[in-house]
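Thread: "does anyone have the structure for this chain?"

Original post by V.I.:
We have the sequence but no experimental structure in hand. Need at least a predicted one for the grant figures.
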Amino acid sequence: MTISNTQLYIALAIAAVLGGSLAYLFWKQRKEAKKAMEERKSNPTKPSKHLQLQAYERLILLADRISLTNLINRVSQSGMGVREMQSLLVQSIKQEFDYNITQQIYVSQEAWDAILNLKDQNILIVNQVASFMPAEATGTDLNKSILEMLMQNPKASLHGVVAEVLAYEAKKLLK
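Reply from O.Q.:
Generated one for you, tokens below.
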């Protein structure tokens, strides 16, 4: 089961807009890095570096767990219909996110926005690809279509960029 060029272009356009937004956030975050670091040093009520580093570690793990490739490999079950698999993928993303929602207390707004964008983009991709699938398609067909779309355009996934943003901020804490 493959998706048409029009459907692929729509999904890629959405991914490009989300990618551009994340790139802007990353640039903005780097620009304000010195200011944020000074504020952290001067404000003793901020969380400790240890807690912040743990939060970045957990968010990097979250980003990895909700990357579509890893998610599909982890939750894929044979015998499911396309709508069941869509629901399982979306539910898994939301559960992983909800489990880590408290980490936003310890990280910058830009880092948290990157995680939100990744979550939203992955749910959007799953729902978009599933919407183009016929009702009689299987969950395996959906998984294959998602993986094909990601292989045809690796930039459609924000996973790598989000991981870089989180790693950059964690390294700043170590300085």
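V.I.: this helps a lot. The CA atoms of residues 6 and 12 lie 10 Å apart.
O.Q.: and The chain is about 75% helix and 0% strand.
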